Amino acid sequence: MTTSTPAAAPRTLGVGLISVGWMGRLHTRAYKGIAERYPELNVRTRLVVAADPVPASQAEAVNLLGYERAVADYHEVLADPEVDVVSICAPNFLHKEMALAAAAAGKPFWIEKPMGRSAAESAEIAAAVAAAELVTAVGFNYRHAPAVEKARDLIRSGALGRVTNVRGAFFADYSSDPAGALTWRFIRERAGSGVLGDLLSHGLDLAQYLVGRIGSATSLTETFITERAKPSGAAASHFSRAEGTPEPVENEDYAALLIRFDNGAVGTFESSRISIGPRADYSIEVYGTKGSLRWNFQRMNELEVCLGTDGGAAGATGAAAYGYTTMLTSPGHGDFGRFQPGGGTGMGFDDLKTIEAAQFLSSVLTGEQLAPSVADGWAAAEIVAAAEASADDRAWHDVKVVTGPLTYDRV
User: Fold this and answer.
1) Which of 224, 279, 295, 395 has a C-alpha 20 to 30 A away from that of 344?
2) Residue 364 exposed, middle or buried by CB count within 10 Å (0-12, 13-18, 19+)
3) Which domains does the chain have, with CATH numbers?
4) By CB neighbour count within 10 A (0-12 exposed, 13-18 middle, 19+ buried), where does 374 fall?
């Protein structure tokens, strides 16, 4: 007679949330999905406490999201001994303060990007995390799209040959209305850069994840909607409209970069927050000596691939069959199989955050930095800093080398 070893009881991790907005709700849903999507982690999440200064948001945290309690002061989250991990989903101007406090409290944290308002703030956060010997996560969620993971496999396996050039475009329309409110995103002291940090930092991280380190950049930026009216309420989003006396917009609406990778590849990147037409048109194309591929978030479950100069086949007339093949992501591509049973039934944005949460909690459970790290966040910030310096003097600028556990170049 044989007996089986009982399965270990699941470990429970207490979650603390800072800021109950759209992203805070997303983080919460992601934590709730871990037990179902990643059963091998053998972990359960307990929603312990959420912090938000708005009473209505505190009520939502308890009554809708399921947190055991809610408070106004985020320091109470960090001081709670039952909180094992923390999500920082507050606006940019609070990131540094909250991240440094979390590091001082010894709490592993998952923070949204841009991690700091500047490269200097991001470096401070990374240094504090290193001193505290913590694992972390930064919200570079587009890395986790299964089509992107497949693209990375193709590039890193040499299927495209030597990468020659990369083209990226991160275009959105969320600020295209001139009557849109002057929220914190348009104030340099609160947001730092504009579209460079808000959107293009995603594209630059994605480029490094696919191709390798970006070593230098030159850029131009422009602010096309130079004035906006302040919102009447503190809870206004960047989709809100406002009327009143216009005040200056202090950061850029548009950015264009030329970049050089350390491995010899070159690239162009463009980003806009005021383009009329694109909603979330976030795309990247990678070209090599043997082929190319392209991906667009608006069709996130598709990857277009062209290998060889003739497609490797001939048509009925003997003419070469040449062009892009559209690959639908399927089980075996990244973590797709955890969410859908077969290609054609697509994943969504929320699923990417669940993958992100799983990488964060895996990092906490193993002590190994698996999720995009604060070092990755700092690396993206240094590219933005080089681009901002170039926009001022029109010169090429080297990107500062950062230290820490960079996951964009993991094997």
Assistant:
1) 279
2) buried
3) 11-141 (3.40.50.720), 143-347+371-398 (3.30.360.10)
4) buried
